[in-house]
Automatic annotation (TrEMBL):
CDD domains attached to this UniProt entry: Cas3''_I
Keyword match Hydrolase: yes
PANTHER family from the UniProt entry: CRISPR-ASSOCIATED ENDONUCLEASE_HELICASE CAS3, DEAD-BOX ATP-DEPENDENT RNA HELICASE 47, MITOCHONDRIAL
A single MF term (Gene Ontology): RNA binding
Compositionally skewed regions (Basic and acidic residues) per UniProt: 708-723
Keyword hit for Flavoprotein: no
Organism: Halovibrio salipaludis
Top-level taxon in the UniProt lineage: Bacteria
Annotated protein name in UniProt: CRISPR-associated helicase/endonuclease Cas3
Amino acid sequence: MGFTGDFFSGARPESAGLLTSTTRDNRESLVKIMQKDNCHQSYHRYWGKAMPQSNGPENGPRCHLLPYHSMDVAAVGHVLLSEETSRNRSLAGYLGIEPTELQAVFTFLLTIHDIGKFARAFQSLAAPAPELLIEPDPHLPYRLRHDALGMLLWKQCFSRSNEFSKAWSWPTGTAMERQHKRSLETFLNITFGHHGKPVDAGSEALADHFYPEDEEAAWAFARDCAALVAPQWPCELMGDKEWGKTLKRLSWHLAGQAVLADWIGSDQSVFTYKEDPVSLEDYWNETALPKAVETVHRIGLNNSSKPAPFKGFETFYGFPPTPLQNWAEETAIEAPSNLFILEDVTGAGKTEAALTLAHRLIEKGFVEGAYFGLPTMATSNAMYSRIADIYPRWFSENDSPSLVLAHSARHLNESFAASLEHQQQDTQYGIGEQTGSASCNQWFADSRKKALLADVGVGTIDQALMAVLPFRHQSLRLAGLANKVLIVDEIHACDDYMLTLLAAVLEAHAKQGGSAILLTATLPIEMREKLISAWNKGLGEHEQPELNNHNFPLASQVSRNGITESPVKTRKSVQRHVLTQRLDSTDEVLAILRETMEQGGCACWIRNTVDDAIAAAQWLWESVADPSRVILFHSRFIMADRQSIEEKALTHFGKDSNATDRRGYILIATQVIEQSLDLDFDCMISDLAPIDLLIQRAGRLHRHSRTLKGDRCQQPDAKDKRPTPVLHIHAPPPQTNAEKDWIRRFLPGTAAVYRNHGQLWLGLNVLEERGGIRMPEEARHLIESVYGPDADTQIPEALVDSFFEQEGERQSQVTMGHFNRLNLDKGYTTASANGWQEEIDIGTRLSDEPSVTVTLVRLNEAGTALKPWAETASHPWEMSQVRIRQSLARQLPELSPETNELWETTVEQKPGLKFSVPWLVEQEADALNYNERLGLYRQSALSIEDKT
């Protein structure tokens, strides 16, 4: 339908008006004056962003007109997808169009991203400048979000118009066939889904939301935007079904860019409010585009750093490469989209090998950065420290690439983040619907997500896995990974649910041209096959890959050129023969720890639950001569205390520790230390755990060659002078007639954490048979003895049920992973998921219950405000947080009504706290407490008993 009638034709009755007749007369007079200036159009009478009436300015603009906000966002998108960027060139290449064509189409789509705000239902949410704007209708309910209203307008108005071709610059004489329309709707899903998830307009009636004059204003605005931007529609390609499938796959990346453009374009500190009308062309050229160019450059999102040449491993690192590192510097990298799987023993230099491959990929232009996905926050802290001085040398000396640690609150751009944090909030739209500036504030306030946008990001693997789950803003995660190499350490730590999601990420990452590097010391053959198969599927190869090499160590490379499996030698210094000895009681464990302490050595006891670790530490503190030498480390410390403990652990047990640093120190820890932290103990005790974890823990025993006293040996590949290392395993004997409660009776906490008791028995049994761990020659045998296809035939009859229960649980996890993951082939649409969720940090790991982020707070001296527990830390709020099980969080006392009001005020000032639970520690809790020595603890954990 075309609109040729009077502007006010079809207007609804005055009975709903909020304005006096005098105000309406003044408004109409002003409109006539502006029309004489030849810049006022019907669409200039609609607001896009409004200042809340309660705290709006006495002087100055009260709103930002809808055309201007639309131009702001479009200008940012125009710059983000500039034809000079590798991002644009890559996407345009996949689509078979010119970069200028893609930029013009994307820019036009963003000009109409908020076209649903022309609805009278939306405009009636506020009346910021009544003398200038259309009259609101308070009786018209706003029940459909403005993004969905945009889709509704397209489906029921624009798509049915005979004048569409002229208004949207569709080439004259080119018919709009069904496939054309499908491709166009894929484009529109991108722009209307700019709030982080696709929208569905449903079957609402247009007249329930829009006045006829609203439709006409929206139509006029789209027409003038098309005339200004001149989108170059690839009509011939859009009519091709296969091209439409390609567009759907790329729509996720474009949707992420649309979200980012909307956020940056909503920054009031840059795109200030303007309510006086000027022509679209003038606003675009004089305001929107110059500010967009300056802002995107300032944030650093379009500043592609130039790669520095890779001059060889020894030149870069200053020491000779290990065999694996030598392979990494010499293997051929001839095409983009490479998957590398590096399997080698602990201490073989897998991290430096991965960094070498990343540097070479950057040098060749196949990627522009990296994201490191680690299993835990502790391991990501350690990785950050390792690469902080390395990554800048991947790039030109004149560049300043960004590095963000996902949970550290190190900002991608400090000044940008500060401007977001302190700017005035816009008027909220509706219940559960945030403005662009509010969403941007919360997202950028959370550094876990910013890490995906940095040149180099370090965080947990969860942030990458969320890219394939139907959470709000997942498209931005996927887009953030697109031009990077994804490096995932300790992949054997993935359960079957996480493995399913990781496979989905690898498939998606291969499709968008990225590369990936996976690191592990203990990988079952079945897992390697699944990961390689997923990558091949992303490359378009759907046949099951044939993997014939079961050697260890092994370096696998997968690209469009095929699969290569390269056996790698192991240097003598990391070949390991660790004896194993079983301990029947807690008394034996404590006796060995005391003896090691008295003899001047250092030791570690790894426990499988936090409560068990706290109990053990408490006993030692009460029974040894110097309690300060007993360090407790687990996951229930706030970030500030956790980082302090990590530093202390590295000082006394780290690679560079000397005999004095190490003498007489004991670490009581949970699983937080078994991955990535470079620790080296003289004595190691572990509660019984799965075989792969025991191998990992043994890797922290005599990790670096040392003298008998404990100083590092200075000669390369020097032999360790300490006695033969022994991994002491706290466990019951693996009898062939073991009873059902075999492990539960001995270690109830372990039985609850590792519920496949059959596999625990298998691991302990093979170690008893072998008498120890020999790496690398027995690595495959140890792993396959527990995880191989026929391993279950060796399990005692009483434990078989637990084995098959957990096997059933494994299959359930795989099924749940497939059910929850997005179907990316369907494109950015609601149909790609079994229901979309808000952005909450659950869903990447299956457990008995989700975990919750808790923020520890105190009252200030006057009792008038809340302050963070770690108020002296550089980022005090983030440093005052801890993540715990939901059932534990439920035991925390609720805030009083008065304190809860203070918390709500705090969240308004610090939007990143929205999804955390506050805990006023000063308030008495029946069962829980916190201090920097114990962390968050339960009173019941402060005693230890011999369970044998």
